[in-house]
Specification:
This is BTB domain-containing protein. By secondary structure, the protein is of the alpha/beta class. The protein contains 16 helices and 7 strands. It has a 5-stranded mixed β-sheet with strand order 1-3-2-5-4. It binds zinc ion (ZN).
Length: about 350
């Protein structure tokens, strides 16, 4: 979403403080008349990190006040450009420390705003260490509200990297995401126009038994439209089919007659597979069926390593270590091919 669109959802108009808001413990000059002393004062606090003595503008979020450089806010956030421009000819209604006081939009959180200010103040912090997902989401919301393009771009690129459409899911599951997190990310992607995260989020859902269980238990609880459910089901079927073709193929070297031989060429001698070539394919397929491997990896073929799970059983049943290594290497190669086959954006931006 472009910054000008962002502005359509957030009023940049300066809000005139009420008299109640003006009555605070802080020393404040009131341009307008004094108010009754019986009203309970609003407890305000000056933010400890962003109260610059030579700042030119005071911003308020809830009961927290910020004193900041007006020119810097204008430089980075279209929201402030419009806010200050609209206020140029208007009489000042609230002054604190000689600075006009502006109230921030209600959808701007205190934490989000401080995160955004930190990102603007110390942009080099993210050169070597990108923001965490939590921080990126916080920055996304705040920068959208304030139409701050530089931080908005940082937040979106960070999320696109965490949910990369180019990088394969790690084979050991170390970068896996829970299905609730994936659903949240899909909604976020559509709200803020981040289609780059949808492929990975789609895979996290299609490969999650917990997701399918939750869907079966209460379809409404997952909070996704029917068209998404159908697409995810299609992806699940496609993954199962790709896996089935891979898992049933016997390891070893392909021969001209279409059969597969042991990679060691030993055929039962000197450490090779202890069987003849003509029974390899049938025997391997039988092993995979008997060991439950066709089902075991069908849902999550990028993370299910047959050899890791069943090496001992296969070594004990005619297969040699070299052929099992060959099968594992083929899986690693196959993963890259599979990822390329899954279309970008199994779930579409809406
Ligand atoms: Zn072998």
């Amino acid at each position: 979403m472009q910054a000008n669109q962002a502005l359509n959802t957030a009023s940049p108009k300066r809000q005139v403080a009420s008299q109640d808001q003006l009555d605070t413990p802080n020393k404040r000059k009131k341009v307008q008349g004094e108010r009754a002393s019986s009203v309970q004062p609003v407890v305000e606090r000056r933010d400890k990190d962003f109260w610059y003595s030579d700042g030119k503008v005071v911003l308020r979020i809830g009961d927290t006040l910020f004193k900041l450089y007006r020119s810097r806010l204008e430089k980075y956030c279209i929201f402030f450009q419009q806010l200050f421009a609209a206020d140029a000819d208007a009489p000042l209604s609230e002054i604190l420390d000689g600075c006009p006081v502006y109230h921030m939009p209600p959808d701007l959180s205190l934490k989000g705003f401080k995160n955004l200010l930190n990102a603007l103040e110390t942009p080099l912090e993210f050169v070597d260490k990108p923001p965490s997902q939590t921080l990126a989401i916080s920055l996304l919301h705040a920068s959208h509200t304030l139409a701050c393009d530089s931080v908005y771009g940082l937040a979106k690129s960070t999320l696109c990297d965490i949910w990369s459409a180019q990088r394969l899911p790690a084979h050991d599951g170390s970068d896996a995401h829970g299905f609730r997190e994936a659903i949240y990310m899909i909604k976020l992607a559509r709200l803020f126009d981040i289609p780059g995260v949808l492929k990975r989020a789609s895979y996290e859902l299609a490969s999650s038994q917990e997701f399918w269980d939750a869907l079966a238990a209460d379809r409404q609880s997952v909070g996704l439209p029917e068209v998404d459910i159908f697409r995810l089901y299609d992806l699940r079927l496609a993954l199962g089919e790709m896996w089935r073709r891979f898992v049933l193929a016997a390891p070893g070297k392909a021969k001209e007659d279409g059969k597969v031989s042991c990679v060691t060429d030993c055929n039962g001698y000197g450490g090779g597979c202890r069987m003849q070539s003509y029974v390899r394919s049938k025997h391997w397929a039988g092993n995979m069926e008997d060991l439950g491997q066709v089902e075991a990896g069908a849902m999550d073929p990028f993370r299910y390593n047959i050899i890791k799970h069943k090496k001992a059983e296969l070594l004990g049943d005619y297969w040699c270590a070299s052929c099992l290594e060959d099968k594992e290497e083929r899986w690693k190669t196959q993963r890259a091919e599979w990822w390329g086959v899954i279309s970008e954006g199994v779930l579409k931006p809406q």
